[in-house]
Amino acid sequence: MKALLSLALLSASAFAHEGMWMPSQLPQMADTLKKAGLEIPATDLADLTKAPMNAVVSLGGCTASFVSPKGLVVTNHHCAFGSLQYNSTPQHDLTVDGFLADTMTQEKPAAPGTRIWVTESITDVTDAIDAAMATLTGKARYQAEQAKEKALVAACEASEGYRCRVFSYYGGAQYRLLKQLEIKDVRLVYAPAEAIGVFGGDIDNWMWPRQTGDFAFLRAYVSKDGKSADYSKDNVPYHPKSFLTIDGGGVAPDDFVMVAGYPGRTNRYRTSEEVKYAINHYYPAMQKYLAHTDKVIADSCKGVPDACLRYAAYQKGLLNYAKNFEGQIAGFAKSDLVTRKQAFEAKLASWVRQSPQRQSQYGQALADYNALVKKAQKQQSIDRKRGEAMSSQLYKTAYRLYKWANEQQKPDAERDEGFQNRDKDAFADSLKAMDRRFHPVVDKALWLDGLSRYKTLSKKERFAAIDQALPVEKTSELSKTLDGYYTNTTLTDSSVRLAWLNKAPADFQNSTDPFIQLAVASYGAYQAMEAAQKETEGDFMAVRPQFMQALIAYQQSEGKSLYPDANSSLRITYGHVKGYTPEKGTIKEDEDGAKYLKKGASYFTPFTTLRGIVAKSTGEVPFNAPKDELDAIADQDYGPYYVQALDSVPVNFLSTVDTTGGNSGSPTLNAKGQLVGLLFDGTFDSINSDWDFTANTRSIHLDVRYMLWVMDKLDGANNLLKEMTIVNLPSDDE
Length: 734
Fold this sequence. Notes:
The chain is α+β, with helices and mostly antiparallel strands. The chain starts with a helix and ends in a 7-residue tail after the last strand. The longest helix has 44 residues, at 514-557. Strands 1, 2, 3, 4, 5, 6, 7, 8, 9, 10 and 11 form an eleven-stranded antiparallel beta sheet that branches. A seven-stranded antiparallel beta sheet has the order 14-13-19-20-21-18-17. The protein is globular and about 70 Å long. It folds into two domains: 1-115 and 184-269 and 564-719, Beta Barrel (Thrombin, subunit H), CATH 2.40.10; 298-318 and 353-544, no CATH class. Helix 9 (272-301) packs antiparallel against helix 12 (337-353) and helix 14 (365-388) packs antiparallel against helix 22.
């Protein structure tokens, strides 16, 4: 299988700019990359020991990059929003006002659990994991795969201060072990005001044109001996092995750009049946759920001091995903993806039948895979509603604590993922973070809302322990019952929550805390549900690689190659700065003249400028550009960031690079590997790119020149400007 895969990856994608490539694949694409415009050796992009790749880091859900020798990290504003929220008070709301530390001593600890992960090596471990799973199916296969992963991770983490993880590629046809330096002491350095960092808000989210200053700075700290350490005033800035140089000259139309980062998930190789389920069931249900949940929070926190602020980061995520799913639905409505998938699958099946050897090797793969998909989809729908009964953060926390106590009774290697000794610090951080991200009034409202969906299950599908503890059928009585839970619990106290981390199962079973009692009573039912899910995942582990092997072999016969779907591991994508002609029927006007028209859409230029901020500014959130920004624009105080071709300072730009969630904050690099922007979004026409990359797929980037302009002309972040290495920046008088 490995030989087949390596052959399949010798050529670049048949579709220009499509693909989130593993660093190790880039040297094989050297000619393609050079032709596209890359000026540094492609081998440099596979070398994780030097720039630019060693400077690219993960924040766990977002990407960032080192931009100074003193551990300074740049990422998106929305990636640092949780730390802004965590450090906010009703008297000083950093999510609105922004924050700037003039000196390192003024920097604030980031939200608990914030980490910077520096990938140092990626090792192929396919043979080891395949050997462990050989001949096994179902739950036994799942357990064997997990056991081998844990053994590989344990050996990797023998090096102090490192965190390791095994990633699956091509549906389980390949496995690789990532070794990452874990930096635990992360501090908030600088973020512009909300009116800049979130300009346009949810209205402009996923839209073009954009004028959003989506950037923020963090700093990595380590102990005096250079090792990873928890927060301490005695810690010192981390000195990365490399950091990115900033090209103050930026980019121009058609310039080569690439993005390095940690994209979350794509579904490019899902079957037509999986696409139909997403279109008809998953996305419509999730879009309604997310928008509804945001409303529940907004309604319940009104008039409750501090409550809305505590859920600000959570709501921002809800709204982002809700709009994403709205776009997925709209995109699928205009797409013929299902038809194309069905046609492709018919060709694949025909190709398999043409050879007895292929028929023997792949014959059952597609049929078995589709049968398993249908079975899993039905069960997932039930399990999601079962999970709704745990919509309370306190209930979920009590359950996790009780599971932690039970898992501690097993040898560490046999515990479930997330419940090993290596996970204790992260668990404790999440318990601490609740101090600023929980309020009983909102929690109760969310719990009542979740139970209203849980009770739509049949009695057979529901859990007896929950039905016995809570009168889910009687709304008024249920509300009073839940009031008793919040009145009589002590889990709202951070020190109490942390203390439960060190208690035994018997302590939970003897507790009088109502949330603990409910967690104990329902534990067996939820564990049985998890066991069934593991059984299904084990079956997928046997079938998915067979399907992907057939798909890769067929593509190879057609002279094409496949990159793996995104899976939160380090990837590189490349393309060019380029506008596009949008779908017809949408009305939107760009301040620079490009328009969406009712009849026949026109071309979208790839840059927006400061003019767009003035054009959109209304003085009302989210288009409330700061007065000092509007004054600077009116005075044409552009400094060295002015671009003659645009007659202004560029703010955001478009490119053809292939990205998805998790790429937020990723450094946008030029042909020399220098920082020219930050990836922060995609266009509404591109949302379906998780499933289907097209010629109109576009990513949206913050232009580094706007970031520098804000730092220089508006916020006076001179200390940071001096700390970074900025090249190709004209002087003010040029």
